[in-house]
């Protein structure tokens, strides 16, 4: 138990306050921390910004990412739920620049919060997934898309390249980007990620590990957002950003850990 607690102290919750064509982009980019760069507009159209108003004063700020999975529903991480009161949250679809009105956004109030019954508040135990039911449905304005999800139990092979997107910090303790970031990130299979020199027993089979090269990773503000992977001819959201190392977001052999969506398909459809 003492060893487990010591390991768990290395986990960092990857959320924090922060104000497709899916073609391969070959033009020169300005590299950002976690190995990412500005995403082209109107690409990751299922990505949402989960925003919070702690004083119920209509002053919202970004806390987490999320994924649009139906007209009334958004998937995010359970640890992103700072309060059980739905009135403190809103979801923004079509968001691109957090600090400007792009004309593509839809702002939706949350009616109900549904947290997975297996969530205990302990990231190492997994089940870090929640669903938000919106008060009114999202409508198709050309800037959004309902995400495709993987097949139940689907597991990605080692080194399979997916994409991490979000408005997370560009460095541990660093600045927050205004523009949505994207970064290719390789999957680390469970047998590797659960080995002692990686995440050990904290990596469960209901999780997906990706990164760990010391270059590409999620960081504070990315939690709850999607891990998007081109599988079976379609972009599917295979992961929900859950945790990473507390000391430094992009530590070698400490990849970003995602809730594996394919392990929760039945639960998702049961609550929608």
TrEMBL record:
<keyword id="KW-1015">Disulfide bond</keyword>
<dbReference type="InterPro" id="IPR001254">
    <property type="entry name" value="Trypsin_dom"/>
</dbReference>
<dbReference type="InterPro" id="IPR043504">
    <property type="entry name" value="Peptidase_S1_PA_chymotrypsin"/>
</dbReference>
<feature type="signal peptide">
    <location>
        <begin position="1"/>
        <end position="16"/>
    </location>
</feature>
<dbReference type="InterPro" id="IPR018114">
    <property type="entry name" value="TRYPSIN_HIS"/>
</dbReference>
<dbReference type="InterPro" id="IPR033116">
    <property type="entry name" value="TRYPSIN_SER"/>
</dbReference>
<dbReference type="GO" id="GO:0005615">
    <property type="term" value="C:extracellular space"/>
</dbReference>
<keyword id="KW-0732">Signal</keyword>
<dbReference type="InterPro" id="IPR050850">
    <property type="entry name" value="Peptidase_S1_Elastase_sf"/>
</dbReference>
<dbReference type="GO" id="GO:0006508">
    <property type="term" value="P:proteolysis"/>
</dbReference>
<dbReference type="InterPro" id="IPR009003">
    <property type="entry name" value="Peptidase_S1_PA"/>
</dbReference>
<keyword id="KW-0865">Zymogen</keyword>
<feature type="domain" description="Peptidase S1">
    <location>
        <begin position="33"/>
        <end position="272"/>
    </location>
</feature>
<dbReference type="InterPro" id="IPR001314">
    <property type="entry name" value="Peptidase_S1A"/>
</dbReference>
<keyword id="KW-0645">Protease</keyword>
<protein>
    <recommendedName>
        <fullName>Peptidase S1 domain-containing protein</fullName>
    </recommendedName>
</protein>
<keyword id="KW-0378">Hydrolase</keyword>
<dbReference type="Pfam" id="PF00089">
    <property type="entry name" value="Trypsin"/>
</dbReference>
<dbReference type="GO" id="GO:0004252">
    <property type="term" value="F:serine-type endopeptidase activity"/>
</dbReference>
<keyword id="KW-0720">Serine protease</keyword>
